[in-house]
Write a structure and sequence with these properties.
The structure is a homodimer. Chain A contains 13 helices and 14 strands. In chain A, the strands form three sheets. In chain A, strands 4-5-13-10-11-12 form a six-stranded mixed β-sheet, sandwiched between helices. The first copy, chain A, has helices at about 40-45, 50, 85-90, 110-125, 140-150, 165-170, 185-200, 210-225, 240-255, 275-285, 310-320, 330-345, 350-365, and strands at about 5-10, 15-20, 35, 85, 100, 130-135, 155-160, 175-180, 200, 235, 265-270, 325, 375, 395. Chain A starts with 5 loop residues before the first strand and ends in a 10-residue tail after the last strand. Chain A is α/β, with parallel strands linked by helices. Chain A has a domain at about 85-110 and about 210-385: 3-Layer(aba) Sandwich (Rossmann fold). In chain A, about 35% of the residues lie in helices and about 15% in strands. The interface between A and B is large, with 89 and 89 residues.
């Protein structure tokens, strides 16, 4: 049995195919490329039962990941993050079957570790020595981390406004970090010029085909954690959109294997009202989005004014009868506090946005009371200390605690 | 088969026994109490094979945990953290078989989640409504987190100097947080007076018997991850010492079950030169430690001038032919950076201290080249942003990246 059933790369827009065993970036038509597997052979050679005794990391699905050889894997044990039932929170918003897929419990504290683990492993397997990427913070931290482990040099360009802690991650892992007085699209343009000038491997979102393969494992895990009886709705905080595209891709692959049935979860793209290009395009029935001017939100990871994979996000939402919805910063910060106080789950602001969306969709009747609903929390709230207000009394050693709290 | 084989509580100093099904704190002799199980019955009713298909959380060992009923469990999916081989780092210090047990990959980003998950679950099962504790930061964050999920009110007292992010955790999870202008022993005294005055459940380190039961699961996991062929050395950053006591307890329990053989890993207590009471007592052949005056270290979690369980730490070290060793702040910060740059593993300062200790013990010949050595990284470096120096150039959108890095 092959370790990976990877077959070729395919353009989802013009359907051109490419060799998967050389370094590849965009299609000549400008679209991202997607990895395709020999799913017919995999249906014979890969069974659900085998998974049961495998280690709890995303590499348990190696047959449907792009790394050819086990020894190419660069891993810190990422994946199989907890699926946490949050019934108290759920009951308070009329969805007793509410769950959080908690991507805070992963190396680097963010789901970006998945894309980086698979992307860096495959980059190293294909001979990459230096990679470059723009980032809103967490992806840069994750790629710096896995690049260090792989012995690859990483050039990271990050907006000055990105979360401070992600700078630390890049710096301590030995990446070449640059801050830009601008947004992620400015960082992206700087990286594009650098890649062009210096021949580095472009690891920008969807400009290499393997980050999404790491992200799709969230879809495999959700299906496995629900014992292959997929939930009704998955809400995803959507910036670049690789996660939601990946989950959709994973679900389709599982259908091809015959591991799940025809019904798919409705995928919901959640954005911030200060940066909602996907929501606007979905509402207007467009196939792709327009650049969102003067975008802003405290949920920094979803401050992406125009995503390269916008058309794929919109396809995933429409093909699953999902929807797209925008929430206010104030609402999502309140949701972050409510989720922690009710359930002890300290989500990142992006993750908290999905709770606001679920509550609204339930109120509108779009989510039914008996449905099983998954909020994707893309990272730990610990990486965003500025979103929490602290007001704690200071005691002297001789002071006593008050009896009424 | 019972869900838990918990039998009674025992004083490890005077061997008095207590009922395990009422709230209990210290022995009348002043010693902490330890949970004892019916290991003879467990040897019949609990097998290694059953573990293979259980979920990857610490609750997979529920037979040897103190929670009586499955529905009492308060969980966020904690446990089964990665055991990460770090061969490049290992070869550079002459220990190719070097591993890091990475407790950063757990809810709350610190091993304290284990003690809190089990301690809070059992507290709720025993009817606790309000608990109080002093903390150097991470334990408070973890107990606040699990208390929120359990619906228990938590009163947390923390030194002003404790890591900022742990304040956020306490606050957002709805705990009553107090800061003290002093060290953890001052916080402890304030809590002791509060407990006395207001009848709260005292959740201070080792003043309730179940936190250690959560921590011991690190020992179970290390043994299971090495396929029940335990490593030669485990190095542990030692403050209150509950982790090292717990690992020793776990290993002894596994011996009683017959799951591991006679040989135990040598346990090494690693402290900071600015706070090394255990090291001093070990060197002087004492059974317990003296309060360390004016203690200080950047590794805040091991700034514990006098631990209640010091005699148990010393016993664990001596019974396994281990040792105790102190390292400088400067060395441990350098080790933190080296581990990240070599392996992409961003350890907390406490965890990084164990790397310095391993290197020194190897140089002295105490660790042999062919031994399998585990560094316990007790938490994520992300919770300690102040330990990383960042020096990143700032670009304007029109700027280009340099070609030589």
């Amino acid at each position: 049995m092959p370790f990976s059933y990877l077959q070729h790369l395919e353009c989802p827009r013009c359907h051109a195919t490419y060799n998967a065993d050389t370094q590849a970036h965009l299609c000549t038509c400008g679209s991202p490329l997607l990895a395709r597997y020999d799913l017919e052979a995999a249906r014979e050679g890969f069974t659900k039962e085998e998974l049961q005794t495998r280690e709890p990391s995303l590499w348990r699905y190696h047959e449907l990941l792009p790394v050819r050889a086990p020894e190419s894997i660069i891993t810190l044990g990422e994946g199989m993050t907890p699926l946490v039932p949050v019934p108290r929170m759920g009951e308070s918003i009329g969805i007793p079957g509410l769950y959080v897929k908690d991507e805070g419990v992963i190396p680097t504290g963010s789901f970006k570790a998945r894309g980086a683990a698979v992307g860096v492993s495959r980059a190293r397997e294909l001979g990459v020595k230096t990679l470059a990427m723009p980032t809103n913070g967490n992806a840069g931290g994750a790629w710096a981390t896995y690049s260090a482990r792989a012995g690859i040099k990483a050039v990271i360009v990050m907006p000055e406004g990105a979360p401070m802690i992600t700078r630390n991650e890049c710096a301590i892992n030995g990446a070449q970090l640059f801050l830009v007085n601008g947004l992620i699209n400015h960082a992206g343009a700087i990286v594009a010029r650098g890649v062009q000038a210096h021949g580095w491997y472009d690891a920008s979102t969807l400009k290499e085909p393997y980050r999404i393969e790491g992200k799709k494992t969230m879809g495999f895990e959700i299906a496995e954690q629900f014992h292959w009886n997929v939930p009704d709705v998955i809400l995803y905080p959507t910036g670049g959109g690789v996660g939601i595209i990946g989950i959709y891709k994973a679900l389709r692959e599982l259908q091809s294997l015959g591991w799940i049935g025809k019904r798919l979860p409705r995928l919901v793209a959640v954005q911030a009202t200060g940066c909602a290009p996907i929501v606007e395009a979905w509402r207007d029935g467009k196939l792709d989005s327009q650049l969102w001017p003067n975008s802003h939100t405290v949920a920094f990871g979803i401050n992406v004014p125009k995503a390269l994979g916008d058309f794929l996000v919109l396809e995933a939402v429409r093909a699953t009868d999902g929807c797209a919805i925008a929430v206010d910063d104030e609402e999502l910060l309140q949701a972050q506090a409510r989720l922690a106080a009710h359930e002890g789950l300290f989500a990142c602001p992006e993750g908290a946005a999905t709770l606001v969306a679920a509550e609204r969709l339930r109120a509108e009747g779009w989510i039914k009371e008996d449905e099983r609903v998954v909020l994707l929390n893309t990272g730990s709230g610990l990486k965003y200390p500025d979103t929490v207000q602290i007001d704690a009394p200071i005691l002297q050693p001789q002071d006593d605690l008050p009896g009424t709290l």
